[in-house]
Write a structure and sequence with these properties.
The chain is 61% helix and 3% strand. It has helices at 9-16, 20-29, 47-62, 67-84, 97-114, and strands at 36-37, 43-44.
């Protein structure tokens, strides 16, 4: 992405490779995407908004989550971020990345034991 601070709807849709109507719908469903509204009503998206769109897109289209499931997964991730003291999404992650990996490993071990 360019060195811009704010992006128009068209630019955000191009970066996320999503239709504009999908982005508008996801704004209603996910509090993570909250663009700045100009007095004229036009939206201006930040890099964090676009990163959130890409994360939602990955959960829904690649991993097969429903919108409700994606919302819950993002909420759980935010809780982990707050609990571990890691930076918020859209900011560089530090060494606390292993906490999430440890949780995933534990879940996988439990699933394997159940099989």
């Amino acid at each position: 992405m360019a060195e811009k601070t704010y992006f128009t709807m068209r630019e955000a849709a191009r970066h996320a490779q999503l239709p504009e109507y999908t982005i508008r719908y996801w704004e209603q469903k996910f509090r993570l995407v909250r663009p700045l509204r100009l007095a004229s009503g036009h939206r201006r998206y930040t890099r964090a908004d676009i990163d959130a769109l890409l994360e939602i897109k990955d959960l829904v289209f690649v991993k097969g989550y429903s919108l409700d499931g994606a919302r819950k997964a993002l909420a759980a991730k935010r809780r982990l971020v707050k609990a571990s003291g890691k930076p918020a999404p859209g900011r560089p992650a530090g060494p606390g990345k292993s906490i999430l990996l440890d949780e995933i490993k534990k879940e996988l071990r439990l699933l394997i034991k159940e099989l």
